[in-house]
Amino acid sequence: xETTPLPPLASWGTPDTVxxxxxxxxxxxxxxxxxxxxxGTARFTRLDGGSLKYREEGRIHLxxxxxxxxxxxxxxxxxxxxxxxxxxxTPLRLFHxxxxxxxxxxxxxxxxxxxxxxxxxSVYRFRADGSFVIERLxxxxxKDYLSRTVFKRRGS
Length: 156
What we know:
Helix content: under 10%
Strand order of the largest sheet: 6-5-4-3-2-1-11-10-9-8-7
Oligomer: single chain
Order of helices and strands: HEEEEEEEEEEE
Radius of gyration: 16 Å
Largest sheet: 11 strands, antiparallel
Shape: globular
Number of helices: 1
Strand content: over 45%
Structural class: mainly beta
């Protein structure tokens, strides 16, 4: 039985083109349910060898009114139909691999990562409007939260 390939998703193309389209600057809006919010920017910068350095910076606001600056870094590497995410340390250490598939009008990938006894389950959703969302459920003896970050291309 022959299948007809799905047309490219507006803005993101197909699973194998998502990685290349991450490069550049993004506005980020994060909610960590019941714990904090963060507004800031994220930038994917091309490195030698083709990987992307991810750096986010922003202002974190706590429910008690306190706020402070925060940042995080990762390294993304393209793989067939997705990407691998590494902690930005030497040597690089794998956080997770995301294999992207088509789900309705989104391209979606998910993965898990066990950090000592805390489980990180992440879902990446690449939307037809060009934005993307990372949802991360963290459960364990030290952590218990859901984080949802919406990324929109700067200037859009």
